[in-house]
Protein: L-aspartate oxidase
Organism: Candidatus Brocadia sinica JPN1
Amino acid sequence: MGSGVAGLSAAIEASKHCSVLVVTKDKIDENNTVYAQGGIAVVLSAGDTIVKHIKDTLDAGQGLCDKAAVKTVVSEGPKRVHELIEWGAAFDKEDDRLIFTQEGGHSFPRIIRAQGDSTGREVEHALIRLVKEYKNITVLEHTFATDLITRDGICHGAIVWHAKKGTTLIWAKRTILATGGCGQVYRETTNPDVATGDGLAMAYRAGAVLQDMEFVQFHPTTLYIAGAVRFLITETVRGEGGILRNKRGERFMPRYHQQAELAPRDVVSQSILKEMQKTDHTNVYIDVRHIPRERLYTRFPKIKEICDSFGIDIAKDLIPVRPSAHYMIGGIKTDQFSRTTVRQLYACGEAACTGMHGANRLGSNSLLEGLVTGYTAGKDACESIQKSVRKLVPYTIRESMGLSKISWLDLNDIRNSLKSLMWRDAGIERDERHLLEAEEMIEMWGSYVMDKEFSNPTGWELQNMILVSSLIVSSALKRKESRGVHHRTDYPETDNIRWKKHITWVL
C-alpha cells in the first residue's frame, strides 16, 4: 500500500519471485516523493565516507538513532542509488560527473539532485517506468485502504474501497505499508492532500507498535503568501548560499547557531519562529540576490517558476518564508528487515519508524531511507513467502454493524479545526497547558466522529487524522524535555537521564 519511493522499491524487489499488487489512494504519482525537491544524501563523492555520513546522521538524531539502522541505510545507499541510475534516473551532472551539494547538518557535500529542485519527481517516474514493465505487478489507483485484515496477530491483507467498484477484500501472503506520513494533520504543511496518516492509523488498529510519534519535523522554509498553497523552498537554497533575514533585513541565524543557515532543521525552524515573534511579523525572508542569476535559474527552476507566478523574481526580490510541518519521524516500529510487530506485516519509508532519524531527520536522508527500506521489505517479504509452507486461505469475515449512524456533521469544519489546533498547540513550540487543551479538544471531536460509520474517504481520513493527532499530542505531553524537533518551552533542556529512550504505543 503506497506508491512513493518506498512502496515502488518494495514492489520491484518483491516482484522478482512473487506477484505484487500496489494499492494507492490517488494516482500512482501523487505522493510525498513526487514533491521532494531536496536530493538524496549518499556517499558517492571522493573524500566522503560512510563513517562521516553515519556520524552526521547520529549527531542530528540527538541520541535516539538506532545505530545499526543508520549503518545499514547509509552503507546500502550507494548500491540502491547506482541501481536507480541504471533504471534511468538522471541526476544533475557537470562534465559527466555527478554534482554534489551540501545541506544543513551535513559535514560534506553529498546531496545529489535532479533537474535542480525536482529530485523526487525524477526518482518516482524512473520507478514508475520500471513498474509498468513488470507483468507481475498490478497497480490499483484511486483505491482507499480502510483497514488491515488480521486474525490472531497475523496480517492477511487489507480491506479497500474504490468509488466505482465499492469495497473489496484483498488477501495477501505479505502486506507492506508504504503509505507515507501525516503532514495534513497540521494547518501549515508541505505535504499533499493524501498525507493523512492512514497507514499509521491502520497499523495501530491492527495491533502494531507505533514509536516516536512526538517527533514531527518542521521544514524551516516554505513560501509564505497568504492564501497560497505552501510550497517548499528546499534546504539546498541555503546550501547554495541563501541568507535568512528578518523583516528589518537583518541576518539572524549566526546569533542562534555557529553553522548559521546550515544548522540542523530543528534549530533553523525554532530560530525563525523566535525572529517572527521578536519582530511581530508573519514570516522571514530568504535572500539569494547575491547569487549569480544564471546559476539561480539553472539550479532552482521550479522555485523560480512558482515565485514568478506570485510576482517574485528570486534574483532581485526577497523570498517570504516560514516553517511548515514536513516529515513524520516516528511511525510504525520496524526491525532491520522492515517487519512490524504484527506477523506478515511490513512497513517502510515515512510510515515506518526504523530508528534511522532519532529525534531529528538529517536533510535528504528520507529518499535514501525509502529506497533502502523499500528494497529490504520487498526482499524479505518475498523470501519469507518462498520459505513458508503456509498457504493463503481466505476466511469468512462477518460485517459488524455496531457503529452509530451518522448524525449531521460538518466533516470539513472538524478537519480544519483539528489542523489549526495541531498547528497552534502541538507545533514547533509546545507546553503542557496547550497540549492538555489539544488533548481535550481531540477527545471531544473523537467522541462524535470515531463511533460513526462512514462510506467514503472524507470520513475515514478524518477518523485517521484524529487518531494520529491524538498519538502525537499524547507523546508530546509525555516527553518532558526538549530534544530534536520536539521543543517544550516548559522543559527546554535535554534530559538524558530520564528521556534518552523511546515512547511506544500499542492498542
The chain has three domains: 5-215+329-387, 225-324, 411-505. The chain has a mean pLDDT of 94.
